[in-house]
Amino acid sequence: MSALILVVFMVAAVSAMPIAHALLVAAMAAAASSDRVPLDLLVQQMVAQVQSFPLIAIPFFMLTGTLMMGGKLGEALVGVLSALIGRFHGGPGQVGVLSSTLFGGVSGSAVADASAIGSLLIPWHKRLGYPPAFSAATLAAAATIDILIPPSIPLILFALSSNASIADLFVAGVAPGLALCGGFMAACWWVGRRRNFPRVTTPFDGAAFRRHLAYASPAVVLPVLIIVFLRFGIATPTEVAVLSTLYAGLVSAVIYRDLGWKRLHQAVVHAGLATGVVLLVIMASAAIGWLLTFDQMPQGIAHWVQENVHAKWLVILLMNGLMLFLGMFIDLPAAILLLTPVFVPLANAIGMDMTQLGIMMTVNLAIGLYTPPVGTTLFITSALAKVKVGQTVRELGPFYLVAFGVLALVSYVPAVILK
User: Fold this and answer.
1) CA-CA distances (angstroms) from residue 196 to 80, 192, 398?
2) Contacts of 188 (CB under 8 A, 6+ apart)
3) Is 239 helix (H, G, I), strand (E, B) or coil?
4) What is the pTM of this model?
5) Is the dihedral of CA 243, 248, 254, 258 positive or negative?
6) What digits encode the pLDDT tens for the residues 196-206?
7) Is the four-CA dihedral 184, 187, 191, 197 of positive or negative sign?
8) CA–CA distance, 108 with 87 (Å, rounded to integer)
């Protein structure tokens, strides 16, 4: 049954069917081919998976990001960062990296980051004479920082599948997120200096910088508040999600004064549609995961690895290799939900902490978001920059090196992320 699921899913995915639909087709085909799996029981498993209380956090975090970045905040954020670092080598690219890092604290979605930051910065980069392909590459890679800086939708999905602590995952995601930020900024500086990219030429205006900083500070402190509330047990992740939405609404209405009924309606609809897509993937992945578990595939893989691979470092290397391959073809949320039931027994067998496993999977699968042939952020930023995907990929080399370095750290040096 497991082999049938894999074959049907790959055929459906190659046929350009949406991932959630491909998963559902594979699940139904497997259930129909076996007289041991009642269809009504399969549907019950799908519905049960989305009855989890922590999932309430997803639409609220998405709504928070839409409220904060849909108004004047984005321009103020870019104004602060361009005044601060735009004059250095690779400065405009570094502005993009820092913008994505800060946006990660109010969104939790790499796709939302690539769309919002890309539409804001790429026109600015072009006006400066910045190479559009390198601009697209920078923003495609930097958008993945978003899913490590709390709040993070993929980390919530991992916690749902593995029973890991959402609070521990959020706290552990900060260090690798900041490491990626620093590494990507260094890559922008090195490439900008070597190729003499254009920079911001206007002199530093202290008054304008302080004005932009004061304007953007209510949004900048939001990720700090999220970490504090979770780290000290002031609120649960779901409560933090609701509080962050209330905070975003108050800041937009009272401080930025750009929240009208029309924008509120658009934000709610956008968050609702995005949540619906995620929930459909969760339901379809739950069906596949239950069928694979019923067929004892995860236990079989874990037993085979224990019998044939005895070195812990080699098990981790095999896990990473499989994720890197699948991440090029499967969307990150679906990959998290499909691979977690397979990797949890392996992690338990080698003594790996669930928090480390979640961060390793997220860092690894995030690379697939800007890797062809399916890289989502890669296609978004290339389209915004009006360049061919191949041109963008040729500029991604330094960013891949940084990403693989951080992946090696979180895979083999757990002290980097574990408390």
Assistant:
1) 23, 5, 16
2) 90, 91, 93, 94, 96, 97, 138
3) helix
4) 0.81
5) negative
6) 888 877 777 77
7) positive
8) 29
